[in-house]
Amino acid sequence: MNVPDSDIKSLLESYQTITVYGLSNDQTKPSHYVPVFIRDKGWNVIGTYPKNHNVGGFKIFKSLADIPKEDRRFIDVFRSSDKIPEVVDEILQLGGTEVLWLQLGISHPEAEKKAEEAGIKVVSNRCLIIEYNHYF
C-alpha cells in the first residue's frame, strides 16, 4: 500500500466513478453490499462479473476490457489475494487505472509493488464502508 492514511479521504473525494471488480449478484456478500453502500453515498458504481446479472441495478460488464477507459480510473477489487497478480496484469495491460483498491482481507505485496511501480496508487486490506464511515 502506497497511500498513507492521511490521503484516503482526499483520494475518495477525487473520483466520482468506482469500478468494482467482482461485483456479485449475491446480496449477502460484501462484493454486493459494499458497492450498494458506496453508490448510495453518491458515487457512480459500475462492475465486472463473469456472469450476466442486473441485481442491484448496477451496470455490469463481463470483463474489465469492456469498461470504458475513463471509468477504469479507480478499481475496487473483490477477488481472493491469490488472484491479485492476474488482476494487476490485466489492469496494467489495459492502462488508464490510477487507483487500485483491494478490499478488507485482500493483499498481495508483490502484485501491489508491481502496480505501484507502474504509477498506480494502491490501497490494500481496506473496506470502503469502514473508510467512508471514518472520514465522512
From TrEMBL:
CoA-binding domain location: 11-106
Top-rank taxon: Bacteria
Pfam families, sorted: CoA_binding_2
Protein name in UniProt: CoA-binding protein
Source lineage: Bacteria, Pseudomonadati, Spirochaetota, Spirochaetia, Leptospirales
